[in-house]
Amino acid sequence: MGLTGFLLIGLGGALGSICRGLISFIFCSFSPWTTLFVNVCGAFLIGLFVKLMENSSDPDLFKAFWIIGVCGGFTTFSTFGIEILDMLKSSQWSMSFIYVFLNVFGSVLAIIAAFRIFSFFQS
Asked: Which of 35, 68, 109, 110 is the most buried (most CB within 10 A)?
């Protein structure tokens, strides 16, 4: 990937991070539930972008901007990790398990849903 690809990742990452900040501002929270919402929405978007990329004439640049940049800046695995650690430190064992399950399972379901929705509109 050349300089163009890295610039697209940076621009997409900035856009995704701004959108992530707006979501937190709208919900007035940096809570685990906001992070869950962002991660599942980001997974859905990645699913849509992967399907859109299948017909792209230049999938590397598309992937650089939308998937690595925008979605990478929007979703927040590091915040997810620290929130789990905080729950574990305060002995919220059940809540941490539920939170991990919802993030992982919810993200996979969101990608599947995006694939199905895309396929539905392509038919």
From this structure: 35
